[in-house]
Each structure stands twice: as structure tokens, then as C-alpha cells.
TrEMBL record:
Residues 2-45 form the Thiamine pyrophosphate enzyme central domain. One of its GO terms (molecular function) is thiamine pyrophosphate binding. InterPro entries: DHS-like_NAD/FAD-binding_dom, Thiamin_PyroP_enz_cen_dom, TPP_enz. Pfam families: TPP_enzyme_M. It is an enzyme of class 2 (transferase). Belongs to the TPP enzyme family. Its EC number is 2.2.1.6. Keywords: Transferase. One of its GO terms (cellular component) is acetolactate synthase complex. This is Acetolactate synthase isozyme 2 large subunit. GO terms for biological process: isoleucine biosynthetic process; L-valine biosynthetic process.
């Protein structure tokens, strides 16, 4: 990047990959900083994510904290439940 860094893609999320840790977020704050050789970093980013443990945790949370509002027309206990807004 050159020129006016603050004017270039001001709303973009920045991922900075560099082998030199001193260069991380040096000119512009990175949202994600990955230090290492690109020959290693890029193939690692292409690996599928292992989300089975996360899905199991979500299932446990749903079991532990079920919705109180399951059916249209059922009275609710608050004007707007957070889980009904997402």
C-alpha cells in the first residue's frame, strides 16, 4: 500500500501476513496479523476448519438454556428476547 493509507479502503478488514514480526501493523492497524512464511501460511489457510467441537458446545448450550418462546402466540416474559432478534 502506498499513498494516503487512511483513505485507502477505510472500512476494509485488514489481514497482514509477513515473515518479519516488526512489520505487523506498522503502517496500518491489522484486524488479523499472521507472522510466518507465506509458503506455510497460505496452505494452512486453505485447510477446512474443524468445527465439530464447536457444534457440540452449541448443542450443549441449547440443551442447558432452551428458548422460552417456542411458538407464535405464546406469551413472552420480556418485550423482546435477545434470542428472538438474531
Amino acid at each position: 500500500m502506498t499513498g494516503k493509507l487512511n483513505a485507502f479502503a477505510p472500512h476494509a478488514k485488514v489481514i497482514h501476513m509477513d515473515i518479519d514480526p516488526a512489520e505487523m501493523s506498522k503502517l496500518r492497524q491489522a484486524h488479523v496479523a499472521l507472522q510466518g512464511d507465506l509458503k506455510t501460511l497460505l496452505p494452512a489457510l486453505q485447510q477446512p476448519m474443524q468445527i465439530a467441537p464447536w457444534l457440540q458446545r452449541v448443542a450443549e448450550l441449547k440443551e442447558t438454556h432452551p428458548w422460552r418462546y417456542d411458538h407464535p402466540g405464546q406469551p413472552i416474559y420480556a418485550p423482546l428476547l435477545p434470542q428472538a432478534t438474531v
